[in-house]
Every structure is written in C-alpha cells, then in structure tokens.
Design goal:
The structure is a single chain. The chain is α/β, with parallel strands linked by helices and 138 residues long. It has two domains: 36 residues; 86 residues, Rossmann fold (3-Layer(aba) Sandwich), CATH 3.40.50. Helix content is 51%, strand content 16%. β4, α4 and β5 form a beta-alpha-beta unit. α3 packs across α4. The longest helix has 25 residues. The radius of gyration is 26 Å and the shape is elongated. It starts with 5 loop residues before the first helix and ends with a helix.
C-alpha cells in the first residue's frame, strides 16, 4: 500500500472543505431559496391597524436634530398613519438632558400633514409607560 504525501491529503481536505460554501453560494445566488426563506421569516404584513400607533424615538445628532433611525421611524409613522389604520400617534423618546427627540419627530410629522390633534409627544419611554398604566382599565 502506497502512502500519499501529506500535501495530497491536504489538497483533498481543502477541496472538501471549500465545496460546501461554494454550493451554498450557488444555491443562494441562482435559486429562489432566499425569496422562500425571506417570505417565511417576514411574518405578518406591516399593514396594521389599531387605536394608537406608538413610535419610539431613536438617535439624535444634536439639539433638536434627528438621527437616521429617528428619521426612518418618522417616515414609517407618517406612511402608517396615512394608510388609515390608526386614530392617534404617540411619539416617545428622550434624553436625560436637552430637547427630547420625540419633539423633533413630532415637528417632522406635523410638517408632513399629520394633524397636531392626532398625535402627542412624550419624553422618555418611562413617562409613556406611566401614562398608559394610569389609563389601563381593569
């Protein structure tokens, strides 16, 4: 029985180790597997409805300037409100000091034709939690 040199065994092992990622790349790139997997993971539709839409504030760049995630959340809040699924929008989020980001977000909503009487702005989420807890009926 003839023994192969070590580099032959190493080459065969490398080919076997790289075959799986290669097959996976081909499978993901050239088949609808990603679409099937994504539709299975997405869950229910974003077309929601209810009485109150609660929008959480995100980052801010400075005094009264929304960060990117706060901006995107505001966009989705406007779109969701315009779809007619909610009666009121509550925006919450703020820092321990300075202007709460919820005020900047509420200004943005007001500029995009969400009636001021249809939304309210709270400071930190703990203030919203206290308000909602006080309104809870048993």
């Amino acid at each position: 029985m003839e023994l192969r040199p070590w580099y032959h065994r190493a080459a065969r092992l490398s080919v076997k180790a790289l075959a799986f990622p290669g097959i996976l790349i081909v499978l993901v790139t050239f088949t609808p597997v990603v679409t099937w997997w994504g539709s299975g993971l997405k869950g229910r539709s974003l077309n929601s409805s209810g009485e109150v839409l609660i929008v959480l504030g995100g980052a801010r760049y400075g005094e009264g300037i929304m960060g990117w995630d706060s901006y995107v959340r505001s966009i989705y809040a406007v779109r969701t409100f315009r779809s007619g699924g909610f009666e009121q929008v509550v925006i919450t989020g703020g820092a321990a000091s300075g202007t709460p980001i919820s005020l900047s977000m509420s200004d943005w909503l007001r500029c995009h034709d969400v009636p001021a009487k249809k939304f309210s702005s709270r400071g930190p989420p703990s203030a919203l939690a206290r308000t909602l807890y006080a309104q809870k009926s048993y």
